[in-house]
Amino acid sequence: MKKASTKTMSLLVTIGCIILSSVFSANAQSFIQTIEETGVTISEEGDVKIWEGPYTGKMKPEGPLSGKTIGVLVASEFSDFQAQYIYSYASEFGGKVEFLKVGWVKWKFTRPNVKNKGVHGMWGTDLSEKDARYTSKSIKEANPGDYDALVVLGGHSADIMTSEQEVIDFIKEGHTNGAFIGAIGGGSLPLIRAGIMNGKNVTGNRVVSFMLKKIARFENTPVARDGRLITARNTVNTPAFLRELCKAFDPDFKPERKDILDGKKILVIAGEDFEDIELAVPVMEYLYRGAKVTLATFPAPMRSRPPMVGVDVVQGNYGMSVPLQEIPKDHYHIMKLSKVRMDDFDLVQIPGAFCPWNMVTAGDPVDFLKEAHDAGKIIAAICHGPIAVSAADLVEGKKLAGVNACKDPVEIMGGTHSGDWSAVIDGRIVSGRVPPDIPEFLDAITQALLNN
């Protein structure tokens, strides 16, 4: 009886694996169609898939936000995570993002050790940089009637804006003109002052929830919508918030990427001086897509901030850190890379900036990549990330996207690099070009996981 039972169980497991494989294969095929609907071109050369065309890394021509202008209100100390996600993905759905800066408030305009900080994020994001995915200007130069939606970000920024009547009047006028009004986390503070949330179905974080429970109908949900008012509970809910905004403009919108990676396990190597946006935005999107996320750290062979020596915190290139300042640790895991086992993950992602060089210098992380590849895992790298993949001798005969600094390492180690490619899948190696290509890179990762 035991032998028969064992055979039966084995047969059931085999059938289950076949069914699951068929489901993922079907999802992979339909997902390609979802990607191409954005206007991106995916060319195929055998088993190689290349994301390219004039719309990669830029605002897409089609989508639920097409033709819409989203005004995002920010003052000093806004949420970097929320800002980076919004400008990475609102443009992916066809929306034009314009950051409206409240830059005249001086009491919170600087930190003691940072003179003339201005309108920067809590962790260093500077919205004055040139980027095809957004524009920025002073709110004093803006007309509320020019925006289809106004979104207030969280962070200390929202507290600063609450005291400025000019900002409150701007929000009120936008609301009166028919714009959708949104807030993430503590971003609800100016909306509370404006009286827009009174009696409405809303959500928010602990900064505002005790007030909202008195003046509104508070819902302890990731996102709440009541007419033209959309609120999100925390930073980690930013992806869901943006999809709700899409649905507000297009009731037929379907969030195709929601939970598409359910059951998949992603490991992100978080080495010192990682590129902030290439870690924070992917983590938020992986969680939205249903994947389990682990951040793996390793001892830094070199730190660019000597005061951080001896502190068990990994610092990003601009100021983000691991543990992540804005995403509670119950949403992801942190492990030492030396403790990670091969059955802990399906794919390992390498962010860019100087993290890949630290991997090469440390040595062990590169050996880890070799072991992961030999174990049949998918290796994904963006920006400078292919440098570490090259050092692991995994690029021979492969095509890889990446920042221009990757060209020599990739080609010397036998691969082909092109700055014209936004993202590439070549076997079990996935690569992305630069931060504006994060959506393409994450879709390539998703496609690779669905096919694996």
Concise overview:
The protein is an alpha/beta fold. Helices cover 33% and strands 20% of the residues.
Task: Report on this structure.
33% of the residues lie in helices and 20% in strands. Strands 1-2-21-22-18-17-12-13-16 form a nine-stranded mixed β-sheet. It starts with a helix and ends with a helix. The longest helix has 35 residues, at 2-36. Helix 1 packs antiparallel against helix 13 (438-451) and helix 2 packs across helix 8. It has 13 helices and 22 strands. It folds into two domains: 35-57 and 258-451, Rossmann fold; 69-249, Class I glutamine amidotransferase (GATase) domain (Rossmann fold, 3-Layer(aba) Sandwich). The chain has 452 residues and is α/β, with parallel strands linked by helices.
Gyration radius (Cα, Å) is 23 Å
**Share of helix among residues?**
25-40%
CATH superfamily of the largest domain: Class I glutamine amidotransferase (GATase) domain
Would you identify the CATH architecture of the largest domain? 3-Layer(aba) Sandwich
| Alpha-carbon distance between the two ends | 36 Å
